[in-house]
Amino acid sequence: MNFGLYLPLLVGLALCNHCRRPADSQAAAQALPAAIAMGLATAIMLLLGGGLLALAGSLGIVLPLALLAVMLQTGSALLLASALQRLAAGPTMQLGLHWTRLLLNSLAAGLPLYYLPSASGPLTSLFACVLSTALFTLLLAQFATLPARLQRCALPAWLHGQRALLPCALIIALALHSLGARLS
Amino acid sequence: MTLVLRLLLLWLAIWLLGKILRSSALKLRPAAASLPPLAERIDALLPQTQCGQCGHAGCQPYAQALARGEDSINRCPPGGEDGIRKLAALLHTDYLPFAADAPPQKPKAVALIDEATCIGCTLCIQACPVDAILGSAKQMHTVLADECTGCELCLAPCPVDCISMRPATSLPADWRWGYPVIAIKAVKPGTAA
Predict the structure, then answer these.
(1) What is the ipTM metric for this complex?
(2) Which of A99, A128, A129, B51 could bridge to A119 as Cys pair (CB 3.0-4.6 Å)?
C-alpha cells in the first residue's frame, strides 16, 4: 500500500459516506457539520488505534500486525460509538455518526495506515494519520457542499442529482492518485 | 514525545467533536420547543369562517379533531383545494379531493341586511359565530363587512328573510358599477291624462 492508492481510497470512502446520508431537507442543512463531525470521529479512531498499538508494543504483546490492526481499529470504533451513544445520542443520530459508518471508516481509513512504508516511524505515522484525517474531513465537506453547487451548474439532464458526484469523485481521485504517487 | 503529541491531538479532536455535538444539540432544541402545538398550526391554515360545514362547531374544534386524527382533511369547503393541499403537507398525508357529501365550494360572499325589512329580532346576531352583526332588539341590524366570513349561518334564523349574500368585492378589479334601477309603474289606460 502506498499513498497513490490510499488517497483515492479516501475519496471513495468519502463518497460512500455521503451517499449513505438521508436525502431530506434536515439532513441537507446539517451536511457540513456532519461531515466535520465524521472527520473528527475518524481522527479520534485513528489516533486511538495508533496509540493503543504503541501501548501494545511497549507491553510486549506479540500478534500478527494484520490481526492487531483489525482488533485495535474495531475496538476504537466501537468504543467511540458507545461513548457517543451514551453521552449525546440525539446529536449523534442527527449527524449520522452511526456505529456501522464509524466502523467502516475506522477500518477502511485506518488499516492501510499500518502498511504505508513511508510512515514507518512513530512521528511520521502520527503525521500521516493527522494529514489523512484532515484530507478525509476536507473530502467529506467537499461532497457535502457539492450537490448545492452542482445545482447552479448547467449540467446535462443525465448528470443531475447524485450521478454528478461520480465524475467529480473520479476527477478528485485521479488528482489525489498523482499527488500520492509523488509522495510515495 | 510522540505519545504526548498523540494525546494532545486526541484531546483536541475530542474537544472539537464535543463542540460540534453541543451546537447541534442546541440547534435541535429550540426548533422543537418553538413550534406551537399541532392543533394550533392546523388552525392557522383554516379559513376561520367558523361556518360549521365540516361538521364541527368551528375551525378550532375541526383543527383539534384533525390533530387527533379523528377527521379527514377534505371537509372544509371555504378553505378550497389549496387548503386541503396545505393541510396534507402539514400532516404528511396524501391529498384528498372533497368528500362526496361535502357542501359545494362558493366564492367568498358577505351578508347584507335589507334595512327596510329588518324587524330587529336579534336572531342573526345570536347565530353569527364571529360577531359581525351589530344591532339591538327592535332596532335595525347591520353587518360589518370586514368581519363577515360569509358562513351563511345568519340566513336560516331570520324570520323575515331580510338577509342576502352578496359577492365580496374587495378588489378594484372585482368592482363594477351597479345597473341603474328604474321603477316601473303600471299605468291604467283610463288614468293617463
Answers:
(1) 0.84
(2) A128
Q: Is residue A27 part of a domain?
A: no
pTM of the model: 0.56
State the nearest Cα–Cα gap between B51 and chain A, in angstroms. Answer: 37
Q: Which domain holds residue A96?
A: 3-14+36-183
Is B162 annotated as contributing to ligand binding? no
Q: Which residues of B25-47 are buried (b: 16+ CB within 10 A; e: fewer)?
A: eeeeeeeeeeeeeebeebbebbb
**What is the domain class of B106-168 according to CATH?**
alpha beta
**B158 is annotated as contributing to ligand binding:** yes
- In 10 A of CB B53, how many CB atoms? 18
> Which residue in chain A has the smallest CA separation from B15?
A40
Give domain limits for chain B.
38-91, 106-168
Question: For an interface test with B, which of A26, A42, A44 has the most B Cβ atoms less than 10 Å from its Cβ?
Answer: A44
Helix (H) or strand (E) holding B110: strand B109-113
Residue of A nearest to B5 (CA): A126
pLDDT in tens, A5-52: 888 999 999 999 888 877 666 677 788 889 999 999 999 999 998 888
- Which residues in chain A are contacts of B4 at CB distance < 8 A? none
Pick the CATH number of B38-91 from 1.20.1260.100, 3.50.50.60, 1.10.15.40, 3.40.190.80: 1.10.15.40
